[in-house]
Amino acid sequence: MKFLFVNQTFYPDPSATAQYLTDVAVELAESGHDVTVLTSARGYVDPYDSYESEQEFHRVKIKRVWAPYIKSKLRFFRFINAVSLNFSFALWLLFAPRFDKVVALTSPPLVAFVARFIGWRPNTNFVYWIMDLNPDQAIAAKWMRKNGIAARTLEWALKLVLRQSDQVIVLDESMKERIRSRGVPEDKISILSLWMDNERLKPISREDNPFREKYDLEDKFVVMYSGNMSLCHPLDTILDAARLMRPDSNLKFVFIGAGERLREVEAYRKKYKLENIICLPHQPRSELKYSLSAGDLHVVTLGEEFVGVVHPSKVYGILAVERPAVLIGPSKSPIGRVFQEHPGMRQVDHGDLSTLISTIEETRNAIESLESEIHARAETTAKEFGKEQRMKEFLSILCTKPTKPDKPSANDF
User: Fold this and answer.
1) How far is Cα 23 from Cα 197, in angstroms, rounded to an integer?
2) Which domain holds residue 139?
3) Could you report the per-residue pLDDT of 139-174, keeping only the tens digit for each?
4) How buried is residue 382: exposed, middle or buried, by Cβ count under 10 Å (0-12/13-18/19+)?
5) Pairing of strands 125-129, 101-104
6) Kindly report the CA angle at 131 between 42 and 91, in degrees rounded to 5?
7) Same domain? 174 vs 253
8) What single DSSP character describes residue 283?
């Protein structure tokens, strides 16, 4: 079959979405399918990074388009950047050949709308793989008013794309419920959780880890947040813990990644002169086994209002390197259930500073026994969230030809 994937990021970009899409595209290509990925020529973390316009990676044909970029913190200009990239995607899709399946993800916003209505050809199936849900995310982040024109426009576009999708892939049960509430039939929705890359990610011992040596962490207990620091992931509680625990010279708080909240971390560190906080950029995929293994206790956060809107992918990397973790966020959520069901994982409510500090201390005092418990469960965890099993599930869905969706009507527009 001929597949086209459309998304803002792909290999070699270090963003999580790029890594997951790369895994699926490569698996399809190496299984004998003809796979093309349409993506941006600009980096996601640093838009001034640029990639080749055309490239082949493990039999996947990569087509990258250029779009103007305005550097600004103002959301209006970020909106303009998204429109520019979608316009470039639309131009490419307008003259593209027919594919058997077009699979669109969710970055930038409205990319699925563009892919469905400009990339579609007769006898082409369309799959919507939802990594984050808009306008729900924008409303929860207070970027948009729920009943404002922008939110209503995104809601209209979302419902239209959902109605005209042959298949919809979501990340968890809460996200599925949000999609079902838009009138999407149950049999059109598949839940496929993200996975741990247990081919690349292996636990590295503290003694053999060059990352700990490079950043002078050899004799420290490292509390680590590694991943996207978006508004979906509040960091107030962990920052307050770092401030209160700064007299402990053997404790370091390491933040790896980028996003809107990175500025908050840097401003907080500067305001309180916290030498126990280290900020580092996204690590290349080839280095993740070292950086993630350097964490003694990992931190995952999720805002209450973002349940079913996003799904923190960082937990699967943590599981792969067999390290303890704490969730600062709702226990009654899909990610909360992952923490409840696996050893070495704790949950703390936002603002519950005393429990978080106790969790850090208890983990430090019992680190060896906790890691032994996690390792004893590693084989079962790999079967549950391993890449091999998830790839089989993806191929089963993507290589099945579904029934046709409803034809667009005048009322849709």
Assistant:
1) 9
2) 2-195+388-404
3) 999 999 999 999 999 999 999 999 999 999 999 999
4) middle
5) parallel
6) 45
7) no
8) P
Contact partners, residue 358, CB within 8 Å, separation at least 6: none
Contact of 101 with 4, CB cutoff 8 Å: yes
Q: What are the backbone dihedrals phi and psi of residue 322, each rounded to the nearest 5 degrees, phi first?
A: 60, 55
Question: Using alpha carbons only, what angle is made at residue 24 by residues 110 and 13, rounded to the nearest 5 degrees?
Answer: 65
Same domain membership, residue 267 and residue 189: no
Longest distance between any two alpha carbons in the chain, whole Å: 66
Locate 71 and state its tokens.
Answer: 């550097």
DSSP letter assigned to residue 134:
T
Torsion angle (degrees, nearest 10) of CA 232, 23, 9, 309: -20
Locus of tokens 């959902």: 162
Q: Specify the CATH number for the domain of residue 279.
A: 3.40.50.2000
**Structural contact between residues 86 and 111, judged by C-beta atoms closer than 8 angstroms:** yes
Q: Are strands 54-57 and 60-65 parallel, antiparallel or unpaired?
A: antiparallel
410 band by pLDDT with thresholds 50, 70 and 90? very low
d(CA 365, CA 346): 15
pLDDT single digits (tens) 212-225: 999 999 999 999 99
Task: Clarify whether residues 65 and 187 are in a common domain.
Answer: yes
Give the burial string for 279-304 (b: 16+ CB within 10 Å, else e): beebbebeebbbbbbbbbbbbbbbbe
Burial label, 341 (beta-carbon count in 10 A; 0-12, 13-18, 19+): exposed
Q: Say how many C-beta atoms besides its own lie within 10 A of residue 103's C-beta.
A: 26
Q: What is the rounded CA–CA span in Å between residue 367 and residue 291?
A: 18
Whether residue 20 is contained in a domain is answered as: yes
Name the amino acid, one letter, at 31.
S
Q: Are residues 260 and 245 in the same domain?
A: yes
Reading the block at residue 204, the tokens are 């590295």
Q: What is the pLDDT of residues 57-66, one digit of tens each?
A: 999 999 999 9
What is the domain count for the chain? 2
Are 354 and 251 found together in one domain?
A: yes
Q: What is the pTM of this model?
A: 0.92
The answer to whether residues 167 and 190 touch, using CB atoms and an 8 Å cutoff, is yes
